[in-house]
Design brief:
globular, 3 domains, five-stranded antiparallel β-sheet, alpha+beta
Length: 450
């Protein structure tokens, strides 16, 4: 059986082994809380948080592995709520024989290529001509059986296909040697023509549309041109969706002018001298007992707003507090762009608050952090991220909570490094690129009544 499957099974067994002791301590803590009002021990709380994070990561990786092997009948992530459910997925993969769907893996790179657009020329002729050939190849692969795959399939899987080299020019590895870069550029020039290769190398091309994360890449047998590094499989919930770029140019807003003014000043200090802490992904090591939680966001008061439309009543106001690299904390509101565009400044943390409050309506949110992965969901008014840590936010998701949540919808988009503004996402969808090395530079959020 595949090594990834074995690794996931080992992790699941490890979690199972910890359950008896954890449940016993939790039962004792419940008795002490009920009978004497004794607070739950801090270390036990930390262990419960760590278990939840490990469970979420294990669930995501099991679902992604099932996709890799094209296992039928896997339920939706929201229906997987126990280790028993995850064990069922792993059993299904084992019964399938672990046969990787090679055509889907090969088609992923074709689909990535077809999603490319030119930043300045919507109908860039060299790219359109190359896409015609890519569509023809896609059709051939779709209509071929594993016994008569065209030679392009093994070339794509091994990273030796020109398409793989070309994609590596779009999002290059920062550590690539100059000689290797020149070899790839020359190789792509011969395969696609010099104008298209130069456009890729100069950052004129970008990905657009919705493209799912790739399956694990097959290691190439020492090829001259290797495949672009595939993003790691998503390790946490929620929904596993990759952002779509936009080719529209965006003019600076008054809000960005204010950020420009702030950039000329000294960095803004956090509202408290307490250290900021981010809740990191799963680990067998529990956090330090003397770890201090981050200070609460210092939101400025926001006056209530009345809607002049549709007679709904009070408009949904939103405080958006972000921590911008070298700028510090800055507050924005609904429909405002919170951050910068084209300044190479990352968002390191954000916090949200419905203001004025609406009875029965709450909000929660999470983020994907550089080098750490997905954070747990946090509730209204809490920071997510690590202010002043130097770690970029690479994606986020937001959703509404409470009995009134079905009557409202939250919408959000982000400005991503080298991608631009994303399309608008809503109600818990993931907006960003996990593991791509691309920073979120700004966000825009609003809540509408349905």
């Amino acid at each position: 059986m595949n090594a990834d499957h074995q690794q996931l099974q080992q992790q699941l067994n490890h979690l199972k082994d910890r359950l008896p002791g954890l449940s016993s301590r939790l039962s004792q803590a419940a008795v002490e809380l009920k009978e004497a009002g004794v607070p739950v021990d801090e270390r036990l709380s930390e262990q419960l948080i760590a278990y939840r994070q490990e469970f979420a990561g294990l669930k995501s990786r099991a679902i992604e592995l099932a996709k890799t092997y094209a296992v039928p009948g896997v339920v939706a992530p929201t229906q997987i709520s126990s280790l028993h459910d995850i064990q069922g997925i792993l059993h299904t993969i084992a019964r399938s024989g672990g046969q990787v769907n090679e055509s889907q893996k090969a088609l992923h790179y074709i689909d990535l290529f077809l999603s490319l657009t030119h930043r300045d020329q919507p109908h860039f002729a060299p790219l359109e001509e190359a896409k015609v050939k890519a569509r023809e190849l896609r059709h051939i692969i779709l209509n071929s059986s594993p016994s008569n795959f065209p030679p392009d399939v093994p070339a794509l899987l091994s990273g030796q296909h020109p398409c793989c080299a070309f994609l590596s020019l779009i999002e290059p590895d920062a550590n690539i040697a100059d000689e290797e870069w020149e070899r790839r550029l020359e190789f792509c020039g011969r395969a696609f023509g010099k104008p298209l290769a130069l456009a890729a190398s100069r950052g004129k091309l970008q990905f657009s549309g919705t493209v799912e994360a790739p399956a694990p890449t097959v290691t190439a047998p020492a090829p001259t041109v290797t495949a672009p590094t595939a993003p790691p499989r998503p390790r946490r919930s929620p929904e596993m969706v990759v952002i779509a770029g936009s080719t529209e140019s965006v003019e600076p807003t008054d809000t960005e002018a204010e950020v420009e003014r702030l950039l000329s000043q000294q960095p803004v200090a956090p509202p408290s001298n307490l250290p900021d802490v981010i809740i990191l992904p799963s680990s067998d090591e529990s956090p330090s007992r003397n770890q201090i939680a981050p200070p609460a966001p210092n939101f400025a008061p926001t006056p209530a707003k009345m809607s002049g439309l549709s007679g709904v009543g009070i408009e949904v106001g939103l405080n958006v507090l972000v921590h911008i690299e070298r700028v510090g904390d800055h507050q924005f509101h609904e429909h405002e762009f919170a951050g910068t565009r084209g300044k190479a400044l990352r968002l390191e943390a954000f916090a949200l608050e419905i203001k004025p409050p609406i009875p029965g309506l709450g909000i929660r949110y999470m983020a994907h952090i550089q080098g750490s992965g997905d954070t747990p969901w946090v509730t209204e008014g809490e920071w997510v991220g690590a202010r002043g840590s130097g770690l970029r936010i690479e994606g986020l998701a937001i959703e509404l909570t409470g009995p009134e949540a079905p009557n409202y919808a939250v919408y959000y988009k982000a400005h991503i490094e080298r991608v631009g503004d994303t399309q608008e996402f809503s109600n818990g969808q993931f907006c960003g690129r996990r593991g791509s090395g691309m920073r979120v530079e700004g966000i825009e959020i609003h809540i509408d009544r349905k």
